[in-house]
Amino acid sequence: xxxxxxVAWIAADWGTSHLRVWLMDAEDRVIxxxxxxxxxxxxxxxxxxxxxxxxxxxxxxxxxxxxLICGMAGARQGWAEVPYAKVPCxxxxxxxxxxxxxxxxxxxxxxxxxxxxxxxxxxxxxxxxGGFLALERGFDGxxxxxxxxxxxxxxxxxxxxxxxxxxxxEVFALLTKHSVLRHSTGGDDWDAAAFDAAxxxxxxxxxxxxxxxxxxxxxxxxxxxxxxxxxxxxxxLLIGAxxxxxxxxxxGQPVVILGEDALARNYLAALTAQGAEARSVAAxxxxxxxxxxxxxxxxxx
Length: 301
Hints:
Order of helices and strands: EEEHEEEEEEHEEEHHHHHEHEH
Number of strands: 14
Distance between the termini: 35 Å
Low-confidence stretches: none
Structural class: alpha/beta
């Protein structure tokens, strides 16, 4: 494979399950986007370079190509552990140089963020935050990043002041796949009214969550409640409990949800129902925007 436009540098987002790369020209325009299922979770540290070369090796020229990576490649189980930057701080731009066997590569990995109290960490989301701030300069408020581990980040004066992580998505997956609730929540059906009611219930009585979860199973057995209602109510209970705990972040603050998929829409619906000042933005290219901003920021230092 060849490219008509020379590759000036490569941006990469290395997650647990996938690798995404963007081949960039000298004007920071995307030449091509490539993906691989060789995520951090399936690689030993000495396999990262070959995994990268399998994806981009035939696009490299004779000289040295810079590669800037964010995400789980910098985790303890990744290519090389990159120490966390500590909040409060701007989105990181100082990346750690990684030794490579192939002389055509010059690889740097961006750090994640850590918080001392309460203890918390992120890897990858900080680059999304940096991308958002590059696109919406001067934003002061809260960013919500839904996902397997949902992040809430307070941003002020172009710095990430604090953040909290909630394992809501992972708990939902565990309950629907490995608990007794798997018998009651299968399929893809969805009931929006059930979701809204469950969010309200969990927000008003979060201490009842564990009992309310089993009620989903009992309702199916005794009252024939359908899987679509139970699935939506399970999501609503979990997100509602998250919102109850994250109330200091979103109450009275402008909130931007990074994403416009079904999960992001659920968060937007839940927040809007509580009168929060919330909106969502497309997040497809926001990681790339963060990588470009990090590279530009590093070039200026």
